[in-house]
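Lecture notes, unit on protein representations.

Consider one protein chain, 454 amino acids long.
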Amino acid sequence: MTDHSNSESEPTGISLSELAQGWAKYWSTPGTPFWWRAAPPASGPWPSLPKSADVVVIGAGFTGLSAALVLTRAGRQVALVDAGAPGFGASTRNGGQVGSGNQKFRVKTLIRMMGERKAIELLREGVEMLDGIEALVKQENIDCSFARCGRFRGAMRPEHYDSMARDMEDLRRYSGVDSFMVARQEQHKEIGTDLFYGGSLVPHDASLHPGRYHSGLLERVIEAGATVHGDAPVRGITTDNSSHIVHFDRAQIRARNILVATNGYTKNVGAFFRKRIVPIRSAQLTTEIIPAQTFARLMPTRRVYGNTNRVFFYFRPAPNENRLIWGGRANHFAKDTALAAYAHLARDVLRTFPALGDVKVAYAWSGLIGYTYDEFPHLGRSPEGIYYAMGYCGTGVSRSTHFGQKIALQMLGNARGRSAFDGLTFPSHVFHTLARPAMPLVEAWYRARDITGL
């Protein structure tokens, strides 16, 4: 495997073993995502905010960019705004794993919740999400290392393997997604670990470089004619009979339509959204280059990987490099800037690959994902007439591009904007203000159940 790393020094230089044992107590990391090495977020200068626009898109991640591209090419005057640099948020902080978009529920559970007909529509649209990213990357000629590498999901307990096998059969039956099971005695062909009790393999799932994917989308949006404005945090939105006004520190934009595409970074866009999105911090680390022979033994098929824990971890090879990229929930009880916040990730790495104890950590970072109370993503229009697409619950790479395109088509009145996710009730919660502070305790409880098997 070719080493495409540059000559810069690695930011942390502490081993996985040291990090796992808590020896990183007095170290600190700037939290720079590995993906920014090849595709740092754009830094401006930004044009002045216009006084008016046909559409203001709030949030310049995958959702906002894909929506802005559709709207601008349809002739709409689009102002795309972001509180920070476009790409600063989750769109360039994720693991770059691209699935069908319906990984949150087992098929039979989805059928019980929605009925068979609706469940099939949702599942098939999930396949459309995955295929759509591949088509967009090819159509727009975006160099982002997109590859149909397949996904292996390891069973953490023997009973998990059996339930996964039934679910894979249902997935094939209802959505046509190919998959097969890998028994424990055969799993070393897929992954060099004894941690799992076999697993499932979905061969057509994919991976990409999220930083370069974002940069490519941003370039196409600017080429199409949208104006992009970074470092422009929204301070509020007001609505009158004919239009909306988006307020900033020293300016405001009057627009016929607004799209809120902020997901886990939703702020100052109204109570409707504040009560429906719970921001949850997710964390990742990336190792230094691992010797080729070792890497080939651990991940011989170079797929993307996950497991069946309630609080699961996920991992993958870096594009074109023998680095391990590992992610999971953040340690909510530690400061995000301290490497100690990532010690649990290192422990999970070493449970899976004990031989990597001396391998050094090169990058460690975190970001916010947007969770909903029903664990479904949502798109539509608020009672105030503001369009939205958000709530990807940790599977945003596949969902966000698709939802951005769908909601943009709906704003244009185009029938191709119809989605199986239309009309789903977007629930709020009476105890919403307690959701975020309660999350660390809930996750700690789920981690304990993962360990004990309860």
